[in-house]
Design goal:
The protein has 520 residues and is an alpha+beta fold. It contains 17 helices and 20 strands. The protein is globular and about 70 Å long. This is Glycerol-3-phosphate dehydrogenase/oxidase. Belongs to the FAD-dependent glycerol-3-phosphate dehydrogenase family.
Length: 520
Amino acid sequence: MNRSSNLDILKSNQDKIWDLVVVGGGSSGFGVALDALSRGLSVVVLDKSDFAKGTSSRSTKLLHGGVRYLAQGDILLVLEALKERGRLLANAPHLTNNQPFIIPIYSWFDRVQYSVGLKIYDWMAGKWRLGKSRFIGKSETINRLPQIKQGGLKGGVVYHDGQFDDARMIVALAQTCTEMGGCVLNYAKVTDLLKDENGTISGVRFVDQIDDNHLQVKSKMVVNATGVFADKILKMDNSGARKSIQPSQGIHLVFDQSFLGGKDALMIPKTSDGRVLFAVPWHGKLVVGTTDTLKDKPQLEPEALEKEIDFVLETAQAYLAKKPTRADVLSVFAGLRPLAAPKEDGAKTKEISRTHKVIVSDSKLVTITGGKWTTFRQMGEDTVKHFPKVTGISIQPSKSADIKLHGYVAKPEQGPLSVYGSDADHIRAMMKDKPELAERLHPDHPYTAAEVVWIVRNEMPAKLEDVLSRRFRVLLLDAKAAKAMAPKVARIMANEIGKDAEWISGQLADFEKVSSKYII
């Protein structure tokens, strides 16, 4: 996966008519691309920033059916998500895992309520079930969650859900789509929609934001998969288009794993604002969240509000014996959920359905809105189903449900290179060939110089932030460590792509601005 090569493909094929252009390189966009490619269609994916820069790298890192959605009676969404959860664990075992969760029980009514509800959750998962839910006593709960608040504790209910690395999953999807013949390009901002004499969408114009190339791509169908930015593309098509997206912000605080202890995740099913709170072990740290704050305008780099930070801290302190404080926060990150705008004003965002919606405009622009990470592939399949309607051309059945993603290994190794899957062997070979590449970039983290070289050559980063935030996940795990690593990583990148000291200083300055938002 090479950015220059893909850019050259688009430059030299200005008159080629592709089957699909997908605008947006997050989970929705790559769900569409993967499904279309599985049907033999030709696909271009364009993203105005790095792949997964927005919502898709800022999730709670869960592949789940949604216990909360079950409580709300959204049965079809939960069934769909549980099936897709199972498929993704089967297709990308190097990026996913079975994560046990424990709901602490402080009343016998809660024991009955959650035991019954989670048995239904197990039953709905069917053959995709990851483990049986069960009640455990107080001593086992404390043994498995050493820092849980013990006063009034009666036990816990254990259940199983999926966990993953969201941004690394997008990298694997981009690599998979490339291997299937797709052309993917980051830092390619769509500036206009092409239309024929009948006003029907026939492609897009975009600007390459790295070298300022202005290009166009012709296509039979254009898909708007830009998440919280979907309305910008809809208004590009029709200035009078009604609002389709209601952004809702969620934040996460990252702590040392010792604040929970053990390997299990904690789930608080009802907080003071009615939302679920998760405390989940992830890459050796503890991710705690989330909030639900209505936002008027989407931002590419949203920032946590003080009231959100306070809410997560206060809720965590109420359930943990070792009380986390602001000084203990290693990183804070915020993301925006692209919820489908409610028809009625005043609807609470936590009550807006996470089901997705496919909209076909009069111009035949196809927009996918709503949804959730876990169901991205099904969202893609449901979007591509509109291809015959839009183009009049029949298509093959979808095969995306069974595609093994790039790096697939049947039995993934454990350890810092596990997210690379089968590519880990190449990285180890680089270290053996050049022992200096085995050097760790920070004493508290396992990332090495060899990984930076591999990433630059194979994973299409264009900026320092792309490596430290989305190829490595260190910006989200430990923002101060990311800043400390930045100069070394920038020098390795510059050496690989032939950039000078001016480029390095510019990248470091840009990263300083971004990383400061992750530190409180």
